């Protein structure tokens, strides 16, 4: 039987004191952020968080009731990236709608928190009054560590942490993007180019993997991994457009423009369309553009955007179902739930010109 991973073992592994490890894992002050991150990473690598009852507080919670009192039974919905992940978002808002409907059907309440600082989050967290947590989008390891530390069941949507284990819900990004890329190649496109920062989120990276796999399997194209379009900043707020237009100008001068641009999401695709039009590039006559997510603006774009429909409300409902299942069976194996997504064909794609 494997020996239990203790704080002392983590301390010995890093060459620090047990006091430093304890402070780091408890979320208390007195340890700088760099040291705290090293401790969390070492704890994860040694298996500290995956062992049963590892640094979990014993909190008594109300059992889930079929017709519970909403004032007494609630689920925390954590959306810390308040700049883009809000209820008003065409993407994240639909996911929250799915969560709210599923909770309402169960007679449960919902408390939305957008706090992104771990110390403030600890102060507002009242675990005894919560059944569990649904995390939406990007959430820092330090916040998830606090949730794990108090033993609050959690499910993450569109995000997974490399250090803190949890159930997760994603759209099937890899397969969906692979099908979209194969569709474009089936129409005759060989000069496909992916637009999206693969460091921005796990979903963006998975979509790039699906794109890359389709091209490599086709034998037609060998995509590079040092492409500047894969690491460009500002894709979450559209500020990448000037740099993108410079890239387009260089490509046009060198006569190396792609025939299709495969964007990591609809917001990027819409910004790309605007930038291409400003450069005098016609869509889809000269270049095809695709998105991902099927937000409402995709159908209103000019031309309407070919994209992948992500069933956002279904992701929210699936997260609630998984959370309630996790509460009932806390020792069950963790799951990564993939929701199928389908291509929506619109006018931003056409066969390439000869």
From TrEMBL:
Report which residue ranges the record marks as coiled coil.
Answer: none
The cross-references to InterPro entries, in alphabetical order and at most eight, read: HTH_LacI (IPR000843), LacI/GalR-like_sensor (IPR046335), Lambda_DNA-bd_dom_sf (IPR010982), Peripla_BP_I (IPR028082)
Highest taxon, organism lineage = Bacteria
Q: A GO molecular function for this record?
A: DNA-binding transcription factor activity
Q: What residues does the HTH lacI-type domain cover? A: 5-61
Keyword annotations for this protein, in alphabetical order, are: DNA-binding, Repressor, Transcription, Transcription regulation
The membrane spanning regions, by residue number, are none
Q: Does the keyword Nuclease apply?
A: no
Protein name stated in the entry: LacI family transcriptional regulator
């Amino acid at each position: 039987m494997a020996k239990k991973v203790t704080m002392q073992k983590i301390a010995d592994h890093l060459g620090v004191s047990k006091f430093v490890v304890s402070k780091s894992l408890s979320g208390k002050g007195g340890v700088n952020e760099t040291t705290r991150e090293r401790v969390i990473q070492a704890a994860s690598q040694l298996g500290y968080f995956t062992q049963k009852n590892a640094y979990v507080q014993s909190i008594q919670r109300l059992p889930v009731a079929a017709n519970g009192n909403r004032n007494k039974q609630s689920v925390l919905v954590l959306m810390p990236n308040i700049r883009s992940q809000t209820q008003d978002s065409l993407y994240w808002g639909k996911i929250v709608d799915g969560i709210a409907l599923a909770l309402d059907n169960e007679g449960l309440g919902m408390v939305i928190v957008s706090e992104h600082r771990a110390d403030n989050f600890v102060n507002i967290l009242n675990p005894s009054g919560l059944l569990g947590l649904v995390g939406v989008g990007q959430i820092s390891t330090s916040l998830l560590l606090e949730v794990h530390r108090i033993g609050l069941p959690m499910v993450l949507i569109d995000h997974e942490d490399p250090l803190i284990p949890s159930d997760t819900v994603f759209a099937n990004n890899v397969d969906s993007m692979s099908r979209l890329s194969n569709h474009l190649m089936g129409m005759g496109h060989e000069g496909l180019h992916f637009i999206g920062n693969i460091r921005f989120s796990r979903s963006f990276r998975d979509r790039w993997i699906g794109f890359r796999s389709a091209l490599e399997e086709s034998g037609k194209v060998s995509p590079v991994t040092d492409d500047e379009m894969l690491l460009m900043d500002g894709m979450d707020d559209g500020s990448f457009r000037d740099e993108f237009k410079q890239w387009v100008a260089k490509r046009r001068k060198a006569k190396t423009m792609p025939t299709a641009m495969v964007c990591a999401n609809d917001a990027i695709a819409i910004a790309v369309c605007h930038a291409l039009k400003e450069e005098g590039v016609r869509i889809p006559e000269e270049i095809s553009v695709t998105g991902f997510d099927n937000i409402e603006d995709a159908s209103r774009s000019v031309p309407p955007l070919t994209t992948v429909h992500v069933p956002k409300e279904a992701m929210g409902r699936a997260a609630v179902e998984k959370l309630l299942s996790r509460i009932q069976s806390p020792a069950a194996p963790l799951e990564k739930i993939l929701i199928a997504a389908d291509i929506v064909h619109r006018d931003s794609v056409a066969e390439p010109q000869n």
